[in-house]
Amino acid sequence: MNINELSIKLAYEKLRAGEISSYELTKSCLDRIENIDHKLNAFLAVFRDDALKQAKEIDEKISKNEDLNYLAGIPVAIKDVILMKGKKNTCGSKILENYVASYDATVIKKLKEAGAIIIGKTNCDEFAMGSSTENSAFGSVKNPYDLERVPGGSSGGSAAAVASDQCIYALGSDTGGSIRQPAAYCNIVGLKPTYGRVSRYGLSAMASSLDQIGPFTKTAEDAAWVFSVLAGTDENDSTCMTEAAPEFFNNIYPGVKGRKIGIIKQGFGEGINENVKKQILKEMEKFEKLGAKVSEVEIPHLEYSLPVYYIIMPSEVSSNLARFDGIRYGFSQVKHAPQDVKDLLDVYMKSRAKGMGDEVKRRIMIGTYALSSGYYDAYYKKAQKVRTIIINDFKKAFEKYDVLITPTAPDIAFKLGEKINDPLSMYLSDIMTVSANVAGLPAISIPSGFVNGMPIGMQIFGNYFDEKKLFETAISYELYNKWRDVKPKIN
Q1: Beta-bridge partner residues of 447
Q2: Could you tell me which of 282, 342, 206 has the C-alpha nearest to residue 481?
Q3: Which end of the chain is more exposed for a tag (fewer CB within 10 A), N or C?
């Protein structure tokens, strides 16, 4: 095994035992990026000099037996929608191509304090809008398991980077499944925490009531380790929890004996690939062997999650992206070609027309329509009412069950270009994941097998602020399986 293939836990153990150095580990990841990323296009920026310098500093601290966080000296990649002071934050868009962040996001501040080695920013769908990472203004990301297929989206760059061992773990953002769906497509673990568990301060907002930052890791246990650093209070984010998150580093006890696991009926209905259904149901038998009580559960209004999401999300998008007007941020037609600008409205129109891609424009228009006079009550207000009904459905289910399970995605990763001109078909890729965002629940995707040579994921929902049961369920399953050990054959 090359050291860039290590999990966080193994890297931590080897660093503390003196078997490897942070410099060697970081250089191994950076060399991997240099050797293969031209095939994947997972990274938009690589901080080689900064990373190696920081790795040397961590090695010096380790040699002095200083008390360090367990993430210290371990390379991480960051989705390019999370601000890092002094570094470009493009959001995968031409309108922010040269924007340099003036402050660190809270999660970046926490990683830096923990001594994590940030090696680069990863590619993503423009403003995190997409399910395939084909909407990036800087080119599509490829799936490490099949370079002709998508890695999922919008955090496809982070997922591909972890799956191809270009970093040990990565951060992404999840608005409707943008961590979990690419994790499933790339055979890694992806966690979407409870809304409010992790600060969104410094995350370029897409849909503020849905967005959540979370990790991509190689194991469920690693996800718990990263979550322990990221979660907690933040005075800069009014939607963040007001009490400190529990410490999961030494507080995870694998085991599902006696636990009640609900298989969500709608997650195995029409529109789901038959082979995906069969594989996930087959994997469910392993929970029964581990002593869990597995039965079917129905979430009565789950089918409305997708239409609710595609009203609320674009509505909030139209509000959040109003600031990209060609004056305050990023690309401006005035600076680019002032002779073509007639008035202020012309600045807005031409800056956005040239700086933003088709999917971003599409969602802004849908959202603006849904919020417009005469339609607000019919669309946005009604969607919020149905959202409350869905939340209550989940609360009722969690009165009987510890966790709930579905496939993460309805099918395997699709071919590049297959759905790019069919927005509705693309939106349906999120049908299994959006409900967690609509309801604000925590959910994790874990590797659960292969269909037609491509990885699939199992999605586990937890109750509000009960990530602990998510981790324990996922780790128990993971110890019983080795799907994650099937690596992509990319050299």
Answers
A1: 457
A2: 282
A3: C
* Residues facing 79 on adjacent strands: 122
| Burial class for 305, CB neighbours closer than 10 Å (0-12, 13-18, 19+) | buried
**Measured distance CA(104)–CA(275) in Å, rounded:** 44
Alpha helices of 198-271 — where are they, by DSSP H? Answer: 220-230
**Which residues, 6+ apart, have CB-to-CB distance to 1 below 8 Å?**
none
The one-letter amino acid at 101: A
Task: For residue 470, give both structure tokens.
Answer: 């998510």
Q: Which two tokens stand for residue 74?
A: 């371990």
User: What is residue 475's predicted lDDT score, i.e. its pLDDT?
Assistant: 94
Task: Compute the Cα dihedral for 466, 445, 190, 481 and give only its sign.
Answer: positive
| Overall average pLDDT of the 402-426 stretch | 94
Q: What is the pTM of this model?
A: 0.96
Q: In terms of DSSP H, where are the helices of 115-166? A: 156-163
Please work out, in degrees rounded to the nearest 5, the angle formed at the alpha carbon of residue 462 by the alpha carbons of 226 and 451. 80
Closest CA to 366 of 324, 419, 423: 423
Report, as residue numbers or ranges, the catalytic residues: 79, 154, 178
The answer to whether 171 touches 124, Cβ cutoff 8 Å, is no
Give the C-alpha separation, 30 to 175, whole Å: 29
Task: Say yes or no to pLDDT of 309 above 70.
Answer: yes
Distance CA 388, CA 385 (A): 5
| The two three-digit tokens of residue 348, written as one number | 């807005």
- Average pLDDT of the residues in 96-118: 97
**CA gap 86, 102 in Å, rounded:** 6
CB distance 482 to 173 below 8 Å: no
DSSP alpha helix (H) spans, 321-415 = 333-336, 344-355, 358-371, 382-397
Please tell me what DSSP assigns to residue 207. S
Q: How far is CA 433 from CA 265, 330, 491, in A?
A: 14, 32, 32
